[in-house]
Amino acid sequence: MSDSIEKRIELNAPVSRVWRALTDHREFGEWFCVNIQQPFEPGKEAIGQITHPGYEHVTWRAVVQKMEPERLFSFTWHPYAIDPDVDFSDETPTLVEFRLEPVGDRTVLTLTESGFDKIPASRRAEAFRMNDGGWTQQMQNIQRHLETTHAG
């Protein structure tokens, strides 16, 4: 099993528009299916309630690492931490990175989630499998979001 997941998609939107979809907490929540209350800020924890059907009981938590405008947005989190009765805080989180690259008036978005080798063996394969599929869906979600919202 690999230590990381990588997904790439070319989006029909300029880098500035994709950046906003990633880093505005309300807009991120629209396509990612999470209701986040506070703006993203490096070094701070972002907390929200997942709105995806079947996962509404899950509180989403991530610590924003970097926000390098129109280039890199990253956070750490505990992958597939959906059991409200389990405390995942002792686990080493994985690192999620969104890298943006302009290609004309379009943007190549590369998502990498790394650090699965640090997840406890008892849940590593399931966390990897679920996030691999989840990131495929999220890349489709951001693409659909960008296609159906105003570029403004």
UniProtKB/TrEMBL annotation:
Return the protein name: Uncharacterized protein YndB with AHSA1/START domain
| InterPro entries per the UniProt record, alphabetical | ASHA1/2-like_C, START-like_dom_sf
Domain of life, per UniProt, equals Bacteria
SUPFAM superfamilies reported in the protein's UniProt record = Bet v1-like
**Family note:** Belongs to the AHA1 family.
Can you give the residue ranges of the Activator of Hsp90 ATPase homologue 1/2-like C-terminal domain?
12-147
